[in-house]
Amino acid sequence: MILGLTGGIGCGKSAAAQKFVALGFHLVDSDALIRNRVLQDPAVTREICARYGDAILMTDSRVDRSVLAARVFGDDRERVWLEALTHPILFGIWREELALASVRRWVFEVPLLFEQRLENWFDFTVCVACSFDQQIVRLEQRGLSRGLAEKRIAKQLPLARKVELADKVLWNDGTLSFLHAQIDTLVGSLPN
């Protein structure tokens, strides 16, 4: 069983993913893979520097993700270029993960699951959703300005569309225990 977990930015995908882990699922966190493996790949770093110059690097020669995000969230062409560079590497890592034959239950946290038309990778898709106001509050708590939060939300597929496309929706405007109860119910209904 391979679940694709998605949702809007700030909706609680990571909180949901951790509950799935607690229930015995093996987590593949796409954002963490991009951050900790793909963007640290020397070939990727070279390509990014060739496009944006060495100012994109921090003092330790790693890509400054905040500077990179400002570039790509402000220009769709740059975002598409970065996705074309990084996503094939990410998908290769996914294949490596799936080769772990002893794992029976997977949850892949994929923010852009529907935007990138990745549904065919998964047996079942789950969308974590919440109100727009709740998204903004959570993103501001992470240190994003309201303007940047709104810009990032606007770059994703509308949450209502993700809800329509998902096999199951988890509503996360309430407490963490309410989200966990929804996941318990969902997992209890899945085949072993």
Mean pLDDT: 92
| CATH class term of the largest domain | Alpha Beta
Strand content: 5-15%
What is the overall number of helices?
A: 9
Helix content: 40-55%
Task: Report Rg.
Answer: 17 Å
- Strand order, sheet with most strands: 2-3-1-4-5
The major β-sheet equals:
5 strands, parallel
Taken in chain order, the helices and strands follow as EHEHHHHEEHHHEH
Overall number of strands: 5
Short description:
This protein is an alpha/beta fold and about 190 residues long. The chain is about 55% helix and about 10% strand.
Describe this structure in words.
The chain has 192 residues and is an alpha/beta fold. The protein has two domains: 113 residues, Rossmann fold, CATH 3.40.50; 72 residues. The chain contains nine helices and five strands, in the order E-H-E-H-H-H-H-E-E-H-H-H-E-H. The chain has a five-stranded parallel sheet, sandwiched between helices. Helix 1 packs across helix 9 and helix 2 packs across helix 5. The model has no long low-confidence stretch (mean pLDDT 92).
Descriptive tags:
single chain; 192 residues; Rossmann fold; 2 domains; five-stranded parallel β-sheet; 54% helix; globular
Topology:
Layout: E1 2-7, H1 13-22, E2 26-29, H2 30-38, H3 42-52, H4 65-73, H5 76-98, E3 106-109, E4 124-129, H6 132-141, H7 146-155, H8 159-165, E5 168-171, H9 176-189
Parallel strand pairs: 1-3, 1-4, 2-3, 4-5
Helix pairs in contact: 1-9, 2-5
